[in-house]
Amino acid sequence: MIGDIVGAPGRRAVAQVVTRWRAEKAVDFVVANAENAAAGRGVTAALAKEILDLGVDVITLGDHTWDQRDIVSALEKEPRLVRPLNFAAECPGRGWTTVAGPQGVAITVINAVGRVFLKPVDCPFRAIRRVLDKEPGLGKVILVDMHAEATSEKVVMGRYLDGFVTAVVGTHTHIPTADERLLPKGTAYITDLGMTGPRDSAIGRDLASVTAAMISGMPGKFEVADQDVALEGVLIDVDESTGKARKIKRVREVIP
Ligand SMILES: [Fe+2]
Ligand SMILES: [Fe+2]
Hints:
Blueprint: E1 4-5, H1 7-24, E2 31-33, H2 45-53, E3 58-60, H3 71-77, E4 96-100, E5 106-113, H4 124-134, E6 141-147, H5 151-161, E7 167-171, E8 181-182, E9 188-190, E10 195-198, H6 207-216, E11 229-239, E12 244-254
Parallel strand pairs: 1-10, 2-3, 5-6, 6-7, 7-9
Antiparallel strand pairs: 4-5, 8-9, 10-11, 11-12
Bound molecules: fe (ii) ion (2 copies).
């Protein structure tokens, strides 16, 4: 599972790493958060296709879902693209998907967005619980991207879903956390995957313009930075017969 892909540098990192890791690290299935793939703001239909073509199996999104209006058509048609489940019921697209993984193993990916320091949305806990309790067609392997600002909200979601899903990973802050672990009932967990993009930046944006805006309090135009690019995320070893995780390992690949 790969942290937020930011702009062209992030897409370049995906292009250089994902296919190679399938061979080198025996990676069978890749989930990537792409809510910042289009110059930092959302993802377009064309870029979503590009990322899927680069070897990503399922794309998740977040609070930047609607930044690019043309994503609506892709959300309606592409089963490998999910937006947060707990958006309003009227929103196009899906909050979870089940796709065929390696050897025909059904893999479900669920995306939710937090409520702390973010726009009001439905309760992510109840929304995910409703899917797990009521929906037919869930895979044995269930991967959750909890896109949220507050570490506490992500920690609580991890423990709330422990034993019910294979993994709960956090996204959105673009800063990887060092708390990857197996929870007591077999769910792999990390509070934030980090970022796939330029690290010489303020969470992916040009440092000088973010600094000026922060100090002056005036709005600024934040271009995507381009130096010190890395892909960050986790490798999760899954027992597909039980749906439990065996191991979670934090990874970072710096792109030359
Ligand atoms: Fe976000
Ligand atoms: Fe993000």
